[in-house]
């Protein structure tokens, strides 16, 4: 096999493995993170995957940050976020992990950031679940 064919195959495999960001509402997944800290507290948020950096965002109390994407063909899509707010320094959590969320979230992963911790909506039960707690 020639070097050009090998390189082309490697590029195609690499592209196949990456999550695809999209503004199109017909995509596979929607993730939303809402600041519910209360008392006017702002939330600093930085989310990314291995291939996509969604940037730093400051969310006022009651506002949200959201994005849409398609999961990769291998089922390894992972988006993670670092949070920071008054009283909590650099908390890391997985906003979308295919192996955890493909059933729980179905087509949307909704998160509420509160003073108690992080709640995620279970798409199967319709209930908010307490998933992450703040460190002591």
Poorly predicted runs of 5 or more residues? 6-12, 22-27
Number of strands: 10
User: According to CATH, what is the class?
Assistant: Mainly Beta
CATH topology: Immunoglobulin-like
User: Any idea what the CATH architecture is?
Assistant: Sandwich
Task: Describe the protein's architecture and organization.
This protein has a 6-stranded mixed beta sheet with strand order 1-5-2-8-9-10, with no helix packed on it. Strand 6 (78-85) and strand 7 form a beta hairpin. The protein has helices spanning 3-17, 98-104, and strands spanning 20-22, 29-35, 43-48, 53-59, 64-70, 78-85, 88-97, 108-113, 117-121, 128-133. The protein has 2 helices and 10 strands. With 136 residues, it is α+β, with helices and mostly antiparallel strands. It has a single domain (3-133), classed as Immunoglobulin-like (Sandwich). 16% of the residues lie in helices and 48% in strands.
Secondary structure blueprint with pairings:
Elements: H1 3-17, E1 20-22, E2 29-35, E3 43-48, E4 53-59, E5 64-70, E6 78-85, E7 88-97, H2 98-104, E8 108-113, E9 117-121, E10 128-133
Parallel strand pairs: 2-8
Antiparallel strand pairs: 1-5, 2-5, 3-4, 3-6, 6-7, 8-9, 9-10
GO cellular component, one term: extracellular region
Protein name: S-protein homolog
Signal peptide: 1-22
Give structural attributes:
136 residues; alpha+beta; Immunoglobulin-like; six-stranded mixed sheet; four-stranded antiparallel sheet; 2 helices; 16% helix; Self-incomp_S1
């Amino acid at each position: 096999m020639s070097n050009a064919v090998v390189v082309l195959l490697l590029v195609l495999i690499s592209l196949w493995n990456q999550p695809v960001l999209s503004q199109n509402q017909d995509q596979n997944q929607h993730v939303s993170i809402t600041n519910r800290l209360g008392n006017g507290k702002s939330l600093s948020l930085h989310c990314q995957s291995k291939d996509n950096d969604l940037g730093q965002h400051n969310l006022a109390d009651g506002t949200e940050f959201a994005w849409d994407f398609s999961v990769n063909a291998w089922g390894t899509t992972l988006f993670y976020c670092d949070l920071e707010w008054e009283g909590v320094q650099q908390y890391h959590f997985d906003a979308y992990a295919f192996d955890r969320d493909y059933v729980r979230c179905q087509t949307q992963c909704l998160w509420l950031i509160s003073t108690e911790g992080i709640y995620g909506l279970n798409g199967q039960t319709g209930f908010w679940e307490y998933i992450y707690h703040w460190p002591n």
